[in-house]
Amino acid sequence: MLSIVPRGQVAMGLQDHFGLAERPFGLGPDPRFLYHSPSYTGTLRDVLRALQRREGLVLVTGPAGTGKTMLCRTLLQQLDTPVCVSVLLDPCVTFEGLLRHMLDDFGIVFPASPPPSRPELMKALQRFLASLVSAGAYAVLVIDEAQDLAPEVLEQIRLLLNLETDRAKLLQIVLIGQPRLGELLAAPAMRQLAERIACRSMLAPLGRSEVVQYIEHRLAVAQELIPLSGAVLLQDDDGGAYRVASNVSFTPSALRRVAELSRGIPRSINQLCDGALDVGYDSRRHTIDARMVRTAARRLAIGPAPAPMPGVARRVAAAAALAFAAAGFGTWTWAGDRGAAPPPPSAPAVFTKAAPALGPFPAAVALLPLADGFHLKVASFDARSPAAALAVRLDAAGLPAFSRAEGRFHHVVVGPYLSEAEARDAEARLGGQGQSGATLFVERAGGAGVVHAAGAAAAGEVRVLRIVALPSGDRMSIAFALSAEPKKAALRVLSDRALELEMGPIGGSLAEEVIAPPRGTPIVREVALGQHVAANGEPLARARLTLHEPAAGNVRVVGRVVYVDLARPPSAFPTLADVSTPPRRRDADPHTSAEYRAVARRVLARLDEIAPFLQSAAADPSPDVLAAVAGTVAGVEAILRSAPVPAASSPVHDLLVAAVTTARRAVDRDFAGDRTREAAQALALFEAARREAAASGAS
Predict the structure, then answer these.
(1) Strand pairing partners for 409?
(2) pTM of the model
(3) 472, 698, 432, 660: which is closest to 565 by C-alpha?
(4) DSSP class of residue 37?
(5) What 3-state class would DSSP assign to 146?
(6) Which partner for 523 in 312, 348, 476, 642 could form a disulfide, CB atoms 3.0-4.6 Å apart?
(7) CA 155 → CA 55, 100, 164, 169, 170, distances in Å?
(8) Which CATH number fits domain 3-28+207-300: 3.30.1380.10, 1.10.8.60, 3.40.50.10240, 1.10.260.40?
(9) Which residues contact 240 (CB under 8 A, 6 or more apart)?
């Protein structure tokens, strides 16, 4: 029997308000929310069929936001088990960079210095692909956003299609991109590559009826009755907690408005519906109407493109605007302090266009000044990998570290900070990480920041005192100086060009304001500041950041300053993917053959023992199990790395290293991908190594 728990005992959030297990319109490619439209299902079927037939080159195009990344993930999950997959998400690479990326994904590593030549990379790839034949396996290269590949790289992909046996292609290639990719391949210079395309498919936007079905499908997935570990709304006799059935609906006019504004693009549908749920939650409504959708569209700057004005109408509008400005009601606003006199004619005037309000924020725009940023240069390397490795380690220790290329050097930098005192504190923390002797430097920008008349703050009360932008090369940080250290600072992604920061709780009232940096400032377009009351009644400061371009965001708190660090993708913040593994030893001495055979037998036997534990750890990735299996895999890897490898045993060694590297990735506690698939790929490589060893007499 289920009984209702009194509402006062529950912290009501958006999901509880609407009776949802989770937010139904997230932007992540979650396969649970996959909607099988006719276009999506047909495209997936065509691509899988082409790969199973080993047809070589497959082309998938579709407008941005139609689900190409979701298709890519679904495709990888439905491929047969004995498949080695390399996925390239950053198409801004050279052909040599593409080869190195593929070999790294397949577990084949090279020393960082000297860098391998292109013939060496091609030879290593061909040898690896040939070794898969005896195991009945094959390899797939998936390139996302392929329209951004350099034309010379796109044309040279044709060389990879020449890797084949008499019966089938050794490498299947899937190019996924926007419609511009098809236009590029239609150019005369790409004729030879275009002729190799065995399968062409296109993801189309959803029709009006499909938009309604898409929204209903995602709501149905999110409203399933599931056990809860935290807040409860219903309780059974055994004490189990459950969520009530969904209590949210969209009116027909709201659904029509979503279909119209989104143009049938799933990503835009998600953004509009998620924003509309926020509006409904703020007003404590359960029915989403067209007005809420329009409000969400304004906040996210989503809307149909305005129709071009006829010539006469344009001239009339221009004349009216000129007369309006002459009367003192200009549409351009001085971006300095309100009420301040304009600067003298000799001073360079900084203007910013008065933008419309985002949701509840006012339309008045003030200047967001650029301020000097204090940085620490920790170390310099002549290769990217060691710099990335150090940046990853420092970032994991809570220091805002990143690597920056200047000429032939790669510098590891920590920052920016608003004051020298903060930078000096970070310098002391660097000493605790074994990185003493950092050099302090300042990136000059000037400006004091937007100062708010906060008044006297009570002890422990948080108020916003100053806001500045800190440029740092191709990165940007927005610093919010507060009167006291906040208890909460959280950053939420609204879209690829909109982020929302909540911090506090704050004391007193906060003036609503829109501030924008000077024209030409990268990444940030404007910051809308306002106040928001959380579900628990706490008043929070809310800052909505609208961006010129897609960027990754990260929030950090340093004493009384909250920083939002912004960086352009694809390598926005340091990750373990930036770090290459150490090179293996090579030995051409024939006398080492017997020694290596003993090592291979030992490794094969050890991998036999590890296999069931690897599968178990991937299926149930508890921290203790992952750590235990990772330690065992690391021991096997150490044996392989220290073994001298005779030339005749290179194919076996390459497969063993690839198997161990893939297994290590499957049990890495920071791995965010499909562990089960990685483990299956590691076992497939292991079997290929066993067959190769038996055929060559290495075991």
Answers:
(1) 406
(2) 0.46
(3) 472
(4) -
(5) helix
(6) 476
(7) 18, 18, 18, 18, 19
(8) 1.10.8.60
(9) 227
